């Protein structure tokens, strides 16, 4: 499939993935994006030329046992892998003018005016949603909202703790707000994040560098009279996963891991504590969302003015200024910076 007009938003998670793949041979890197179908291949029935779509790194074939199940969003027919090639035949669809092969990245490859994407990685969306908002739903923002909504199933009146108030953490807050959480506690090393977080439902804030001799988990336990109902790790640091698990409530507390740590990172838990505490620890790739069925729901909630997407976009630039976009992100001055290919 190709595009007629494309918008994309960059995230810090992408920058981390790039660093991990420096030796993979991949030339084109993925970002959140929205496209318009230019053409479709044989046997593609669910899409047609002119459809507004959101390419998503996580496959949804709608046919395998996992895609048909309500319990998983991890397609077994086209499993998620960090690969520079297409799913079905392990080849690339890109070449330079000189004939040199260019690689795909996570099956999306959005730093190009036209791209080829397998239908299992494309979700049709309502064309009424502006492209500079639809692009947010192809990765990080959907991940955070979905983690609260689908993976954790945050209940009304509950207490939520979010470790890391970047865009994904704030998206968790937005999802928890929509689910009716009463207390949403943000944890970050930057106290300025509290004011930003309030826009997405954060009610309290802890600066983890200002806890004195206490671990931040102990501070949270004292604030919540025994621990939070739901904890979300949105940074990608193993020790924070352990802190999050430590301060979720015994018996029913859930800790959801969203941050991407180094592949070799290890977690260390006391076996007896895990047995006795009755807590749950789980990961949530793409927030547990099924791309083809859940992303259109998020689009509708945005169009119905329930879901706040506008506040996530802090900057918009042309493709020529992409380095400026990365600088803003790395300096902590941007949540999501939308890049326009044709401005």
UniProtKB/TrEMBL annotation:
GO BP annotation list: formaldehyde catabolic process
UniProt cross-references to SUPFAM superfamilies, sorted A to Z: GroES-like, NAD(P)-binding Rossmann-fold domains
GO molecular function (one): zinc ion binding
GO cellular component, one term: cytosol
Alcohol dehydrogenase-like N-terminal domain location: 36-125
UniProt keyword list: Metal-binding, Zinc
Listed cofactors: Zn(2+)
Keyword flag Ribosomal protein: no
Top-level lineage group: Eukaryota
Pfam families: ADH_N, ADH_zinc_N
Stretches assigned to the Alcohol dehydrogenase-like C-terminal domain: 167-298
Name this protein carries in UniProt: Alcohol dehydrogenase-like 7
Organism of this sequence: Anisodus tanguticus
Classification lineage: Eukaryota, Viridiplantae, Streptophyta, Embryophyta, Tracheophyta
